[in-house]
Amino acid sequence: MQSWVNKLWYEGHGLRFVLWPLSVLFAGITALRRLLYASGVLKQHTLPVPVIIVGNITVGGSGKTPTVIYLIELLRQQGYKPGVISRGYGVNIKGVRSVRYGDNASQVGDEPAMIVARTGVPMVVGSKRIEAAKQLLSDFDVDIIISDDGLQHYALARDIELIILDGERRLGNGMLLPAGPLREGRWRTSSVDHVIVNGGTAIGTEQQMTLMASQWHLVAANSHKVSKTHAEVKSAAQPMQEQPVVAMAGIGNPNRFFDTLSNLGFTLDKTQAFDDHSAYTEADLSTLAGKRPLLMTEKDAVKCRDFAKDNWWYLAVDAKLSPSFDQQLMASVKQSVIEKKR
After folding, report:
1. 296/151 same-domain check
2. Dihedral class, residue 204 (left if φ above 0, else alpha if ψ from -120 to 50, else beta)
3. Which EC numbers characterise this protein's activity in its record (predicted)?
4. 58 marked ligand binding residue
5. Is there a binding annotation on residue 62?
6. What is the DSSP letter of 187?
7. CATH number at residue 8
8. pLDDT value of position 342
């Protein structure tokens, strides 16, 4: 399914013109919704702490999760106590739920499980983001909230908006859903505080973000206790150095991960792209990998750690942004804090 959608949205498939009338209808509905919020007919809920939205205007992965992790670490360095809210995509949560270290991805969603496993940040998930934010403030010592996605969730007032763009795909064919990948029009990029470009090349005032390969970890349960550099992994697991490997990725742009592995010097015997947020079974992945080492993303690993083999590994990546972005963002945060106290 994802492969077909990619052809439609990013490779100029002619069916986009057939779907164009539906895109016009979608544009009208979303425009009316924005107007109702702007006019006050639909009410926004304002929180007592600053809210940073990390979102996008395209469907699919663009690098929001690494950005959220980057912001958590940046804010902590500056003395803030961030918390995170998220919808918990792909799971059925009644009401809202706090995410605890070690929670299964099938319970809270793969991205929340990954964020908490990496950072230990206070986090609450649920389809109603306002309720999630209220519980976060009630249950944890938090003085700033990061919303993982939710750019179009206008019921939640926000102080800072960030759009994350895939630098290779950018806006695809430039059309709204379903003919194209856009949730909102291109105009939306000029209304936010920062547009962050993941990979590719930033244009104009866009901020460049690079995902840097960080550390290799065993996928197996409790493998967070094992942390190795790429060189250490090679010496500890000879098949990764001497044998071809199998690579899998269930993210928005799987080829980005496969290219990273090739650039690190791995020989990819087989690659398997899965739909974003896919669920995995031990049988399926064992069949895929056989006796060969299996390499995957950190987001995939949180769904496989309970049944992983001892030669399954994931690569952690770290987002890197410019010092000027950090300075601009922190200036906006400080101003938001001042305004909240008035």
Report:
1. no
2. left
3. 2.7.1.130
4. yes
5. yes
6. G
7. 3.40.50
8. 83
The answer to the question of whether 63 is labelled as a binding residue is: yes
Query: Same domain for 166 and 236?
Result: no
Whether the CA torsion 133, 58, 71, 196 is positive or negative: it is negative
- For residues 196 and 100, state if they share a domain: yes
Give, in order, the Cα–Cα distances in Å from 309 to each of 134, 151, 280, 289.
Answer: 40, 38, 14, 10
Unique residue bearing structure tokens 């996928």: 219
Backbone φ/ψ region at 265: left (φ over 0), alpha (ψ -120 to 50), beta: left
pLDDT digits (tens, 9 = 90+) for 20-31: 999 999 999 999
Q: What is the pTM of this model?
A: 0.91
Residues 275 and 150 in one domain: no
Write the pLDDT tens digit of every residue in 251-287.
888 999 999 999 888 999 999 999 888 899 999 999 9
For residue 104, the Cα-to-chain-centroid distance in whole angstroms is 17
Smallest Cα–Cα separation from 107: which of 85, 122, 124, 92?
A: 92
DSSP for 266-296 reads --EEEEEE--TT----HHHHHHHHTTS-EEE
**Among the residues of the chain, which ranges form H helices?**
2-10, 15-38, 64-77, 105-108, 110-119, 129-139, 230-236, 238-242, 254-263, 282-289, 298-301, 323-341
Q: How many domains does the chain have?
A: 2
Q: How many residues does the chain have?
A: 342
> 96 and 221: one domain?
no
- Give the residues of the chain that fall short of pLDDT 70: 1-3, 221-242
Kindly give the pairing relationship between strand 312-320 and strand 207-218: antiparallel
CA pair distance 335, 330, nearest whole angstrom: 9
317 is in an annotated binding site: no
- Which backbone phi and psi does 219 adopt, to 5 degrees? -75, -30
